[in-house]
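Let's practice the habit of predicting before peeking. Look at the sequence and jot down your guess about where helices and strands might fall. Then scroll down.
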Amino acid sequence: MSEILTISDVAKLLKMAEETVHSMVLAGELPAFEIRGQWRMRRLDFEAWLERLANGAQGALGAEMDRSSSVPTIRPKPEQESSMPAVSEPAVSHLTARISQAEMHDRLIALLGKRILRHGPKSAKPLEVDLGGQLPVRVRIYMFNATRPPGGRPLGEHKVQLIVPGQRRGQRGSFDHGDDRVVLLVGYAAEEDVYILWDAGLYADFAWSRNVQVKAETIIEATAGKLATQIRQLRPAEGPAIVETLIAAPADRLAEAIDTRIQLSRQRLIEG
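Done guessing? Here is the structure:
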């Protein structure tokens, strides 16, 4: 069996900060997999990635995912997924498909099409977009890969890990709500081609790499072409529980999902 490397091991080999390596993993730039919230990498995969990079290849996992995006998605039924080993390397690789930040932004911009009046650099995070149409709005989008980490979680549940630019391990983070822009917290499940929109206004002063989840049945409903909603109970350290309505949508209904997300968030603010 190939030697397993930690984030710290990879950081030492690359002579980079651990925070930088972790950000590369979250962006899909390194061939890592996750087990119970811990990132690991096979030395063989790391060395192959390094060799491709040294030879001037397009980098890493993100480019490989781009080439595979035209392959029909296989969505196992729940009973099929339950038979998969929790920690075996093949299962992990299937459960953690992710694409680069720039590719996520590129897909989102292409889907919104003529609704977009202007947008910022695709490589920037967050992505700033001005939308026209019946609901003109200036938005600031924080996009994350939504993956199905194996072990310790309900089968099929997806999650994103919140890290904002400049936030380091051990530091608290918040989204930038300045310039009168509406903030959108968006997860992208690449294997299912589904977008998840949480209520970004309910996430402030969060821990580095905080997990935010969506249920498997919500994702499944979206893959069936529906604009799915899910009610979540958020329990802050102080004060009563807060009710959140999240939205999951197939790619062809992303614009509708964004409009719905903005309306629900505004309604919460009015009623609150």
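How did you do? DSSP finds nine helices and 14 strands in the chain.
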